[in-house]
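Late entry, adenine complex.
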Amino acid sequence: MRIDIITVVPELLEGPFSASIMKRAADKGIAEVHLHNLRDYSSDNYNSVDDYAFGGGAGMVMSIGPIDRCIKTLKEERKYDEVIYMSPDGHQLDQALSNQLSLKENLIILAGHYKGVDERVREHLVTMEISIGDYVLSGGELAAAVLADSVIRLLPGVLNDETSALTDSFQDGLLAPPVYTRPAEYNGWEVPEILRSGNLKGIEQWRHDQSVERTKKKRPDLYKKYSSD
Ligand code: ADE
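Prediction complete; structure with ligand written out below:
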């Protein structure tokens, strides 16, 4: 998979993809993330990528020209499945959407800044708008990193244990069960007996029951959906 991220602050995105699991995905050739500085596509000597809003009002608006030129340049090289704009008013990201995007080959993600982008970018260039939650970040970069991470970790071969993404919270509509490691007893706090029993069927049942209990308690909205399916 290839993900191209268009941004005015590429520095914000260098960290998340240069360590740990995202780096491993790149080193193994499973996922490439390319950062593009929108200022490189400006048409003036000031490298400007924004302008005042027609009709007045506070805040600058990202111009369509540099965004269009950047997307066009990328599309000349390869076909893209989606051009995603990160925005708090987009479709809210969840595990099902990450799963769906992990099946794609090439994605462009546009990280917005300032007061937003010229609406014509959304109307004519973008195919999908995604929010990572009902709160406003100072730019779309961190949201783009969250989206790319949630997608890349699902690609086969990225996680060491092939099954571990399958047992994540939300994959079956439930939160993940509790996990423990050694020591079996610490300060008198004990690891549940069943997990030390070697009874694989019993452990599987216990984990499922814990998942259901935890979801019921912490996310009644998810539990309602799960129990009605
Ligand atoms: N840009 C600013 N806030 C955002 C959010 N919550 N999700 C996606 N992009 C954003």
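The mean pLDDT is 95. Will revisit in the morning.
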